[in-house]
Amino acid sequence: MVLRQNAEEGWSVMGTGTIATEHMVAAIRAMGHSPLWVVSKSRADALHFSNDLGIPQATTDLERVRSDPAVKFAYISASLKRRPHYVLAAADAGKHILCDGPLSQDSRTAKRLVKHCADGGVLLAVNQPLRASAIHQTMRRLILEGEIGLIQSLSILRGGPFQPPPNRRSEMPHNGGNVYLDVCAEDIDLARFLTGAEPVEAIAFAKESNGSPNHLAYTIRMENESLLQAHESFGTADIESMVVAAGTDGVLIASGTLSSRGSGVLVRRLAGRNELVPVRERDLHTATLEEFVGAARLEASPLATGMDSFAALVATEAVASAARTGRATAIRPSASS
């Protein structure tokens, strides 16, 4: 069955690098929407991507996309440095925006993007796959419903050699990974999502390799007095990721949910006994898109907003400062409100 292509629900795809973009294009079509444009700073890349995925138009000229009334939504999967450029262009054209996270390389730029979109009356949502995980959504529900009592701590463990996101072009360069922007911001966002609490203070220790941090351990005090404890490393052997939420009455343990290898498993520990929590798997890309489109229609809330990305970057910068100075660093509460 071929889904009807709805000109009133057209999309532009800005950035062509990662394999995940192809999955998002498939999810756009599965919803009955139409990917109409591919935008890239490289005309050859735009043409290759559009030909591979059957998207009718490719360009390096943003004005052509901005002026197309059929385009209602923009999905931005460009490099971190290029994301602000595309966000501002799409917002100025009145397009609702779903952007890969984090929004930018620093919280100041992210805050500017959030304000610009709000002033323009367009939705700015962020693609945070960890929020779309059915296991993490189940954990959030169980925590907020008090199923493990009062949350005391959230521990996140992951490590292994840096793995750049799978790219369509094998020659695409990468910088060896930034443990703060590639991992720390994502984990802090997950902690905010799971606990519903904001970070207020950080202590951290980091180890450098070739002049940049690649091995990081930190603790963040949350506003509800729970603690986020994280171990994130590009300098260890591969570790099966774990997210452990410990409450006064029980514990939730998610294994293997922070990698792209599978959806993982969720175990609940109560009264000294472990039980597997059944979770129905759901496609991450479809879940993200459904919430985004619902939010654009004022029928739902996006899984992650631009403000969520800003708040995670503020806390990430505090972790980096704490690791650099060796002192506890306050996380500005007014900055993430």
UniProtKB/TrEMBL annotation:
Family matches, as Pfam families: GFO_IDH_MocA, GFO_IDH_MocA_C3
Keyword S-adenosyl-L-methionine: no
Domain GFO/IDH/MocA-like oxidoreductase: 136-252
GO MF: nucleotide binding; oxidoreductase activity
Protein name: Oxidoreductase
PANTHER family assigned to the protein according to its UniProt record, in alphabetical order: BILIVERDIN REDUCTASE A
Gene3D superfamilies per the UniProt record, alphabetical: Dihydrodipicolinate Reductase, domain 2, NAD(P)-binding Rossmann-like Domain
Keywords tagged on the record: Oxidoreductase, Plasmid
The Gfo/Idh/MocA-like oxidoreductase N-terminal domain, residue ranges: 12-127
